[in-house]
Batch of 2 targets.
Target 1
Amino acid sequence: MLAIAALAISVLSATADPTPHCLGAYEQGALIACHTTPDAAITLHDDAGFEARLSADAQGRFVLGFSRDAAPNMTLRVCAKGGACAALPLSIAPHDYNIERINGLPPGKVSRFTPAQLAHIRKSSARKKTAFATHVDTQAYLMGFDAPVQNARISGYFGSQRVLNGKPKRPHMGMDFAVPKGTPIAAPAGGVVTLADPDLYFEGGTVFLDHGQGLVSVFMHMSALNVKDGQRVKKGDVLGQVGSTGRATGPHLHWSLKWRNRYYVNPDAALSLDVSPLR
Ligand SMILES: [Zn+2]
């Protein structure tokens, strides 16, 4: 009798144990996909004041992204709904970023805009802000990610530090695929289009695709768009074509991936993350 009661209690506490089980690499710019108790409250933080709060879905799933410069030590705290909490220390491995030096650029060529250009820049920036703030209910990320174009040379990596005429500039927050103009762009994962604009000032023809869990893909410099705002797409559907619209030096696809409207993560990490155990 006693033994049965003890077993029942241990099963009960085991089902409410929020200790998460995660898949993926603990590395700067990477993504992990985890499982815990349904609707658990999640906090990711470091000692320097960074904090992100989210909830697991009704099946206990959640995805965490680490920024380009994530601290080496972070804490993941998971609390079961109305129950116990678990705190896990995370060691985040540093990522080796390329340094791309470009010299001999004519000084003062950038950042001087006409009033018409400034109006275009402001309009573009407002559209992006609204789209990034939009959250869509979808589990499309659960089918995993595939490269949006095949057989491409990677001409730009996530996080590369750009040094122009000896001056460090903002790092490159996406992945560049060098392919000819007109190459079809396949949705790397399904999702909902939250922005489809043929003419943003810097980005040119642009599509935002929300895959769920706050993962939003951004495709830039497109020469043609096949999708509209609000459209639901499946993995592999053609979003449009590669081009060199906006500020691009030649035809290529720029793909970036933002996490929860906080920061960009490495699209390459999404390609190598196997989320199939969470389905
Ligand atoms: Zn790029």
Note: The longest strand covers residues 215-225.
Target 2
Amino acid sequence: MIKFAREIKYRLFSYLESLRYRGKDNRETFQKIYQNRLWGDSAQQFYSGPGSHDVKVVDPFVNSVLTFLKSLPNAPIVIDLGCGDFNVGSKLLPACQLYIACDVVPELIEHNKVKFANNSIDFRCVDIVKDELPKGEVVIIRQVLQHLSNADIALVLPKLAAFKYVIITEHIPVGNFVPNLDKPSGLGIRMHNGLKKDSGVVITEPPFHFKAANVQTLQTTICEDQSQLVTWLFKI
Ligand SMILES: C[S@@+](CC[C@H](N)C(=O)[O-])C[C@H]1O[C@@H](n2cnc3c(N)ncnc32)[C@H](O)[C@@H]1O
């Protein structure tokens, strides 16, 4: 009975979120989110949210990824899918030969090109769901899949087979939960979709069954609300 009520509530919140983005593709959806500053209050014109700025979550991620990148025999070409305001990506540059930072929001990409102009960064407007991905050795997808519907995630994942290493960060509940409950692409994530600690994206679980030669948890940060940010490293 409780499970049934939770399911109904989840579907209701998903439906309400889908109304917000009705008729919009991912570009328009995320453009609106930035235009209306829905990732949070900030004086910045483009702000990707506290998860991209809070040093308590950003620094441990950056340190673990830098350690991994520096462990590779040569500085790699890194592809960042959904680079956002680039506060996080900018800190990884010292370990990269070239950093190709992609996002679906064209104005954000133009803004980043001016703000972070540097020979070792290439900013590109790419819809990771619809477009071909740039080529490189390492791909980073940090707190992006959590905003996408299962149908959109399923279109992204096969493209990751082209990389040697895949680094994925997701905001998920702590403890037992049913992974990958669906939601429309947009602002909300599966944990906050009306039911706190409800679900989260785990790509190795159904319906995705993402396969890799090796998977390890690179880094975990427990948040104040007992949720967690988990970064996995997949060797393809
Ligand atoms: C929460 S932000 C995370 C930004 C950055 N990865 C970080 O960790 O700071 C999610 C970003 O994913 C981008 N995004 C969402 N859907 C996308 C798509 N289909 N293709 C490319 N970028 C997308 C959004 O525009 C937004 O900038």
Note: The first strand starts at residue 77 and ends at 81.
